[in-house]
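Intended use. Records such as the Caspase-3 entry shown here are meant for training and evaluating sequence-to-structure methods. They are not intended to support clinical decisions.
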Amino acid sequence: MSAPEDNPLDQGEATVDDPDALGAPSKRVRPGVNERNLGASIGKAGQTLKEALADIYKMDYPKRGKAIIINNKNFSFAMEAKGYKTRQGTDEDACSMMDRLQYLGFNVEMHKNQTCAQMMDILVQAAQFDHSDADCFVCVLLSHGEEGIIFGVDGPLEIKNIFNLFKGQNCRTLAGKPKLFFIQACRGSNLDKGVYLNVTDGNKRQLEEDEFRIPSEADFLVAYSTVPGYYSWRNSQKGSWFIQALQFMLLKHGTSMEIMKLMTKVNKIVVQDFESNTFPSQPTMHQMKQTACICSMLTKDLIFTPKECPMEIDT
């Protein structure tokens, strides 16, 4: 159970749902057939046909890859006047994630208190970076938010604009590679009171650019700290529930467990091990619960197999 400092005023953020598409009947495209306009080529990502068709992501490139952490703690006077207060405890989240990502071999960049324009500039540069010799890419966003929004220190930024930067057609050297986003922020103002359960004890060749294509939306994993419409809880001393659970699982099983199984266990920890403790100062927010929301467009199993030489941290 969390300490009394639990703060639900991380004004959430959320993903944007795209409508289902209705159109012509689909057809199966086999590797080696030159089919145009079906998505992003993986040719520039440095994969062979065998690797592209494998059931496990290739994780033996020379580098693990770039990881970006944006940690927004202190907001402008105008934002504070609207209720977006200092996010106490977020530095603990940022430091723990930096340590865990370094442990996994990532080259970590830490950015603090960024405006919307600065956030986009950082992420545009990351998308334009040459990731040819890297396994994957990770982005950690720690801020206030609302549905479909992550906040810079000066205002709102649509999350879909961030994702668009890394889609296959826009970031060719990450096409076919995992792109992981971990987002700690609220996605609304609803509170989850939880529900009681009835429980009983029981006794080799390089591909041409147009040779094999994948959808531009593929190979993303987006892990939100909470479901749409709800608060995301953060302890002012220990950090947010979601990041506490995530960093624990990355430390314990980060190099051996498949990512979706790992994220399921992260969610289990958030659901079972945490409960708000705001009594008596905020009795209406006392004993609230939370569940993370994991959205996967991954097409293969992902395991961060150990690298021989871990990457350094950029500060």
